[in-house]
């Protein structure tokens, strides 16, 4: 179930006795490639050869101690290979490194539920940030602000999972008035002000956490865990042993990175899919909050507060995508004195006609800004015929949660999110197996 796509092959030639920090160089290179999320790499020990020194090396019985050639090869996405060149040069400054364009015709990775047939233990993160039931909620907020996730396990003194606390728990039960995505766009001083405005900053985690925790086991298949996450609308899944003790965490991004390891996001309209695949056109939402590039600030705010997508797509006269504006963009691109008013608008999700006088005054100042000053110009889009697996791989690679969908001419057709694509991928795989 792999798609043909453009890739790049990287080949590194080194010697068997080459070292890096008292470790075999080929081992250090393989470990680095794995850390960087490469889909795979192979180290081959040569039987004979010579390099720039013109010294012939052979595996003959009397020459086993000689420095035999080692060839490391990998095939991956072009952009990932390009990023590997710099760390490879640092690891092996005297190696011969060559790269060439290839077309991937078939992938031999066994799949289950649309995902590589691997266990959760092979994908999960073993170093897990946790809090205790008696921890103050301000500690959770500070922890989540510093990380790329929005939920953290709660464990007791024996390491057993007794709850989960997420940003939604903090918003609904913890007295937090601003979503983490908006807080991350501000500065520490503003965050402290928001903490001081909490109804009860000394409240404990046990008072706001979710107690009915959905968990998985290390030996479970990744596809089973992914299906559980989609069905229960979860982004993080604690991994526990037989005694309920925490041994790892599986995040949605970990699942997406695994998809990205076997699917090429550089899909192109000329690629030939292997087998029947679900495309983004089949799962996208056609009702997209859009504004013209000449829109007013009021129009942008009205759409942001009324849309579940938390972003507005900017189009030109022909509906070509020229930019995108997320709620966090407004925070990062206006003056600090306007932050509180912008937060009030986005937090309350009320029509502009009902906002406070202070917020209205700051909005008046924002009218001088154009859409082009607020939007992000480099928009990651997907073609309507792109398979959802490739779109998910692109989403993981670029760290983008929602992707505008365009036609051959780049005109906006819809928008698609990770949850809808994951659900479609798993559902299609289930039907294919019946």
Could you provide a short overview of the structure?
The chain has 16 helices and 20 strands. By secondary structure, the chain is an alpha+beta fold. Strand 13 (236-240) and strand 14 form a beta hairpin.
Show unreliable segments. 61-65
Largest sheet: 4 strands, antiparallel
Determine the number of helices (DSSP H or I, runs of at least 4 residues).
16
| Corresponding CATH architecture of the largest domain | Roll
At the fourth level of CATH, the homologous superfamily of the largest domain is CBS-domain
So what's the overall shape? Answer: globular
Radius of gyration: 25 Å
Question: How do the strands of the widest beta sheet line up side by side?
Answer: 4-7-1-8
Count of domains: 3
Structural class: alpha+beta
What's the CATH topology name of the largest domain?
Answer: CBS-domain
What is the residue-averaged pLDDT?
Answer: 81
CATH class of the largest domain: Alpha Beta
- The number of E-state strands comes to 20
């Amino acid at each position: 179930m792999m798609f043909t796509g453009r890739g790049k092959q990287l080949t590194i030639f080194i010697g068997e006795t080459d070292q890096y920090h008292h470790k075999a160089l080929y081992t250090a290179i393989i470990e680095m490639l794995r850390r960087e999320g490469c889909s795979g790499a192979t180290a081959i020990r040569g039987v004979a050869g010579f390099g720039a020194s013109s010294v012939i090396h052979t595996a003959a019985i009397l020459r086993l101690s000689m420095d035999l050639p080692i060839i490391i090869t990998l095939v991956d996405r072009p952009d990932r290979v390009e990023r590997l060149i710099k760390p490879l040069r640092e690891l092996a400054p005297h190696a011969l490194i060559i790269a060439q364009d290839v077309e991937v015709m078939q992938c031999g990775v066994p799949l289950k539920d649309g995902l590589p047939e691997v266990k959760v233990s092979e994908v999960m993160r073993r170093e897990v940030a946790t809090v205790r039931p008696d921890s103050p909620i301000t500690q959770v907020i500070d922890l989540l602000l510093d990380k790329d996730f929005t939920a953290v396990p709660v464990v007791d003194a024996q390491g057993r999972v007794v709850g989960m606390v997420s940003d939604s728990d903090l918003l609904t039960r913890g007295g937090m008035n601003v979503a983490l995505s908006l807080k991350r766009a501000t500065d520490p001083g503003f965050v402290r002000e928001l903490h001081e405005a909490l109804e009860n900053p000394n409240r404990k985690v046990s008072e706001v956490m979710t107690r009915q925790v959905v968990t998985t086991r290390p030996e479970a298949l990744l596809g089973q865990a992914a299906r559980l996450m989609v069905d229960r609308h979860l982004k993080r899944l604690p991994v526990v042993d037989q005694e309920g003790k925490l041994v790892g965490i599986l995040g949605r991004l970990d699942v997406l990175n695994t998809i990205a390891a076997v699917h090429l996001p550089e899909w192109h309209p000329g690629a030939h899919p292997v087998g029947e695949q679900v495309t983004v056109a089949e799962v996208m939402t056609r009702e997209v909050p859009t504004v013209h590039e000449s829109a007013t600030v009021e129009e942008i705010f009205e759409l942001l507060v009324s849309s579940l997508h938390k972003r507005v797509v900017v189009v030109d006269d022909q509906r070509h995508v020229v930019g995108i504006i997320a709620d966090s963009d407004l925070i990062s691109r206006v003056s600090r004195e306007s932050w509180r008013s912008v937060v009030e608008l986005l937090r309350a999700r009320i029509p502009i006609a009902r906002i406070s006088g202070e917020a209205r005054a700051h909005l008046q100042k924002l009218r001088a800004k154009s859409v082009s000053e607020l939007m992000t110009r480099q928009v990651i889009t997907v073609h309507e015929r792109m398979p959802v697996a490739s779109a998910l791989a692109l989403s993981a690679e670029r760290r983008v949660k929602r992707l505008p969908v365009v036609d051959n001419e780049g005109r906006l057709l819809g928008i698609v999110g990770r949850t809808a694509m994951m659900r479609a991928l798993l559902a299609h795989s289930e039907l294919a197996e019946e």
